[in-house]
Amino acid sequence: MADDWGRLPEQAYAMISKREWLHRGNLKARLLGERPFPIRVSLKPPTNRAILADLAHFQRYVGAWRQFPQQQWLEWEERNYRTLGSQRVPMALVLEDITSLLAYLGKEAQARSDSWVRNMAPLLAIEAKLYPVLVNYLELLASLSPIDIQRLQQLIPQLKPGMGNGQYLRALPLQGVDTKFVEQYVRLISDLLDCLHDGAIEAQGGLANWLDVKGNHKGWLTVRPLCAAAQARLGD
Known about the structure:
By secondary structure, the protein is mostly helical. The protein has 14 helices and 3 strands. 53% of the residues lie in helices and 10% in strands.
């Protein structure tokens, strides 16, 4: 069957898009170096018997990859077939890094990546080690407005251990940020602070204890941080 060999450009794109872009867990793992580059996808070169069974598909397969615009991503090999003699055959598609992957995926992926980079930059200016936490929140970061990103950048350095002095959250002496913003993005804020303070928020049982503020009936301030370091300690 032709489906067993001779992977066409549109088939390779659909597979890579599903595996490396639409699967957010895999994408985040790539960004964090947990799934290392390069990405190498076999183009399923045929055997002599396969060519005999469907010569038209072989011609489509080779012709389509000859027309592929980014030839630098392709591996070709000279092969000898009994029926056709020496043929230059596409063997694999290789994407060496995240830049190549985004270029391959196209404008929509590049635009989404640009928005992540743009929203991450002010927070990475606080501390570069926040990168893994931010990657874990790609979807949320993409949804935040520039004003919200600015609020986060202003907020994080203001939050200190024990600053609540046993009062309610709304009594925190914050500049330029309402405490409702803290409530709205408590999980992200907790994770950022947990990584900045070497797991102290998780160790103290949540943001309320770390800040020394009174909790509320919803218990939102006791949410467990999910930063990479905390996950590793907890065996997640």
